[in-house]
Amino acid sequence: MDKIYNVGVIGGGVSGVVTALELAKYGIDTVLFEQENSVVNGPPFCHLHAGGNLYPDISDEQCRLLMKQSIEMARLFPQSIDKRPTFISIPKSQKYDVDMIQHRLDMLVEYYKTLIDEDPLNEILGTPENYYKTYSKEDLIELAKQPTVDIPSTPDQWITNAIKFIDYEKLKTPITLVQEYGWNQFRLGAQAQLALNKSEKCLLKTNTEVKLIKDVRNENVDYNWEIHTEYEVFKVNYLVNSCGFKTGKFDESLHINSGRLIEFKAAYVSKWQPISGLIPELIFHGERGTPNGMVQLTPYSQDYYQIHGMTQNITLFKDGLIHSNDDEAQPEFNDDINQKLFRGWESDDIKTRTENAIDSVSKFVPSFTNATVGGPPLFGAQQIPGDDATLRVGEVSFPYKSYARSEIVKASSALTVANQILDKIQEEKIVPFISKRIIQNSLLEAVSKNEIDELSAELAIERGYPEAMSRLIIERN
Ligand SMILES: Cc1cc2nc3c(=O)[nH]c(=O)nc-3n(C[C@H](O)[C@H](O)[C@H](O)COP(=O)(O)OP(=O)(O)OC[C@H]3O[C@@H](n4cnc5c(N)ncnc54)[C@H](O)[C@@H]3O)c2cc1C
Fold it and tell me: Where exactly are the structural domains of the chain?
């Protein structure tokens, strides 16, 4: 192949596709490689962490970054955002303090105001005044008496619908309702794939595994890297490694070894009885890794619910968190996890873990005990740069000239990473200076809702999940 691309991106997860789309937006010639037959097929995401309220232990700075980055991503992919709030509670058995949470929420309201002052289009979480609302026990008792509302439009209506199912005697009060929304990975993947297919500047190569990269920066040729697939060699000036938990594979071949963790986790798909009225996502906080780790119930359409339980018999796994070391930039999981990650789950494991997940929800939502297994688990491995397993905002590193490695921990960091890469390739004069940078991406905006509906349904079915999981619970125009 004679063509020389400005940039080669390896890995079509959320980070790789957003980087490729941002480069294509500015007319930068890019080739994107994804080994599977569709993009955004890696570890799942279901929650837009617009404030970090699922993590009582992280710093205020991480909470602010999560809010800013989430807002930016929601602006790019509005059709993947489910505009329903999140119910945040602390069981009486848990150490966390409700006052501490509220203090942080006040800080986030002030920060949200500054984001809106910078750009009014950032107001995607409703008004700052309504970013969160707290409810005392008396409020809950009163709201439980109110009639259910099919599609709630106020915080009180969301609480009214939810509280009828929740054993709130087990919870500290006040509880909180916060505007952190749902995030549909099938819809984001569909919008990205459709936009990439329309782009003249980015060549998307699905079903194409990159086998090898060759550093030719000192070989007196007109390009810096060769990317080898099974049948072709692509020449590029700048290389982006966005292979998710597999980034270490190419780091090893380049003799780079920066410390990183890799974690395997899973969430479970269940089906509950039809209930009248939509409910928010439900969070029951708990200390991660203990038998009472956090429980998260995420509503999807047609009575499907996704469950995370931060204990070793639900979402977390024995030896599920591994470290790189001096000899290995790409450490290996044990056989059990490798089996799940690469070859598929035993049906007994799906049943046992999904039922454990259902039991963990039933402690707080007694009638959820009727729920049944609704589909295969959503699972995957992700990387965390450094050695702090509680880090929630990873970004990008530039270990060599003309080489970037994406290190996102949450899907929301993808646009930040793309922009940092764009800065770097201008600094290295791979492309001329771009004078005006904007958040909007016309390639993504050119994709219609109908196209997203269609392709996201195909992606869900093709990956073995109910088609309903490709729908939002609150449709957007
Ligand atoms: C159970 C679970 C729940 C989560 N929930 C949330 C959530 O609610 N909200 C949130 O924001 N984040 C969540 N995350 C984190 C989120 O899933 C990840 O941060 C994100 O998906 C990482 O994206 P990525 O593009 O870096 O990597 P990946 O999605 O892993 O993408 C890497 C891609 O590279 C491809 N690839 C690898 N090697 C090659 C090669 N040699 N050639 C070609 N292609 C290759 C892979 O096929 C893959 O598509 C969750 C993670 C897990 C595990």
Answer: 4-43+186-258+389-470, 70-182+261-382
- Longest CA–CA separation in the chain, Å: 77
Q: Which of 17, 35, 315 has most ligand 1 atoms within 8 Å of CB, for mutation?
A: 35
Atom number in ligand 1 closest to CA 407 = 26
CA of 99 to the centre of ligand 1 (A): 34
Q: How far is the CA of 44 from the centre of ligand 1 (A)?
A: 7
User: Can you read off the two tokens belonging to residue 425?
Assistant: 């390739």
Listing DSSP states for 34-87 in one string gives -SSSSSS-SS---B--SS-TT-TTS-HHHHHHHHHHHHHHHHH-GGGEE---EE
Tokens 């309201």 belong to residue: 109
**Nearest CA among 462, 332, 393, 474 for reference residue 41:** 462
Angle between helices 14-25 and 414-427 (to 10 degrees): 50
Query: What are 48-59's pLDDT values in tens digits?
Result: 999 999 998 899
Domains 4-43+186-258+389-470 and 70-182+261-382 share a fold: no
Question: Over the chain, what is the mean pLDDT?
Answer: 95
> pTM to 2 decimals?
0.97
Determine the Cα–Cα distance for residues 320 and 306; give it in Å rounded to an integer.
20
Fold classification of 4-43+186-258+389-470 is FAD/NAD(P)-binding domain (3.50.50)
Pocket-testing residue among 210, 246, 253, ligand 1, by greatest number of atoms within 8 A of Cβ: 246
Domain 70-182+261-382 -> CATH class: alpha beta
Q: How confident is the model at residue 393 (pLDDT cuts 50, 70, 90)?
A: confident
Instruction: Measure Cα distances from 362 to 60, 75, 204, 357 in Å.
Output: 32, 35, 44, 9
CA atoms of 236 and 282, how far apart (whole Å): 46
User: What's the confidence (pLDDT) of residue 235?
Assistant: 98
CB 266 near ligand 1, within 6 Å: yes
Q: Render pLDDT for 306-350 as a digit per residue (tens, 0 to 9).
A: 999 999 999 999 999 999 887 787 889 999 999 999 999 999 999
- Determine whether the shortest distance from the Cβ of 267 to ligand 1 is under 6 A: yes
Query: Which of 37, 181, 229, 243 gets mutated to test ligand 1 (max ligand atoms within 8 A of its CB)?
Result: 243
